[in-house]
Amino acid sequence: MSLSTAPASKLTLLNKISCAIFGNVYNPQGIRTGNKILRQRLVGPTVNSYYPNVKQIKLREITRMAPEMNLIDQEEKTRLEDLSERKKRGKGPPKKGQGRRSTLKKK
């Protein structure tokens, strides 16, 4: 008895059993299931392992943990100095409620 002369019901049963034995997905209609993509290795862990997991400690965190060290953040100090100079020239931020939008409403 060859496979071509076997009834269709027996062939489908044979296909179903072989899929169960070999661990394949039984899909007689040939519908797209996405099984090919699901079988691929995940990319996320590889990408995450490429970059080192190092937390950068900032000067602000150190001063919070140990205020007795009296550390000074030079960037913050220069920023505050620049801000005070701009305020002296009248170029600083406006007081609350006196910005550009409030002056447009008055006209």
UniProtKB/TrEMBL annotation:
Going by the entry's taxonomy, the superkingdom of the source organism is recorded as Eukaryota
Location comes to: Mitochondrion
* Coiled-coil region: none
Principal cellular location given in the protein's record: mitochondrion
User: Keyword set for this entry?
Assistant: Mitochondrion, Ribonucleoprotein, Ribosomal protein
Q: Where is this region: Disordered?
A: 73-107
The name this protein carries in UniProt is: Small ribosomal subunit protein mS33
Q: What is the lineage of its organism?
A: Eukaryota, Fungi, Fungi incertae sedis, Mucoromycota, Mortierellomycotina
